[in-house]
From TrEMBL:
The lineage of its organism: Bacteria, Pseudomonadati, Pseudomonadota, Gammaproteobacteria, Thiotrichales. GO terms for biological process: proteolysis. The keyword Transmembrane helix applies. This is TIGR02281 family clan AA aspartic protease. It comes from Methylophaga aminisulfidivorans. Gene3D superfamilies: Acid Proteases.
């Protein structure tokens, strides 16, 4: 019996390792996409300005998340009808070049905190764009999700049915 060829053994093991790495990488990408879609089913929301309507699906936690724009800067919104104003984390406000106005106190789920008033030149969610929206810059928000409160939502007609929220600019007629 002859000794096995070392290069054949090495290439066989290398092939096996590469195969398993590619399989694990592919599965990771697949399941990350699945989880992301489950947590934010609106991540592919098409931004078509001027259509005046947006249809959002509720995520598995019961929330409506969607991508949008603040002064042209891309953000992720969490629709929050319990928030009086649009509430913007300080990091996002800085990136969107928003100016801090007067300081005032607000009640949040985490207690009373100081925030700063600001005027957002434009807020876009899908085909809806509103100008000069009242907002607050909140330095106490840890993530980059913007709470899309009633200072934006009060200008829209809202219909919720079976996990789907339709937002529409009211017709002026």
């Amino acid at each position: 019996m002859s000794a096995p060829d070392l290069s054949t053994l090495f290439s066989g093991k290398l092939f096996t390792i590469v195969f398993w790495l590619l399989l694990m990488g592919s599965l990771t990408l697949f399941f990350n996409g699945f989880i992301t879609q489950r947590d934010n089913p609106n991540q592919s929301l098409v931004t078509q300005t001027g259509t005046g309507e947006v249809v959002l699906k509720r995520n598995r936690s019961g929330h409506y998340l969607a991508p949008g724009l603040i002064n042209g800067y891309p953000v992720n919104f969490l629709l929050d009808t319990g928030a009086t104003n649009v509430s913007i984390p300080a990091r996002v406000a800085e990136a969107a070049q928003l100016q801090k106005g007067r300081r005032f106190m607000v009640s949040t789920a985490n207690g009373v905190v100081p925030v700063f008033q600001t005027d957002v030149a434009s807020v876009s969610l899908g085909g809806i764009t509103l100008n000069h929206v009242d907002a607050s810059i909140n330095p106490h928000m840890d993530d980059d999700v913007v709470l899309l409160g009633m200072s934006f939502m009060k200008h829209l007609d809202m219909t919720q049915r079976e996990g789907v929220l339709t937002l529409r600019i009211p017709s002026s007629g």
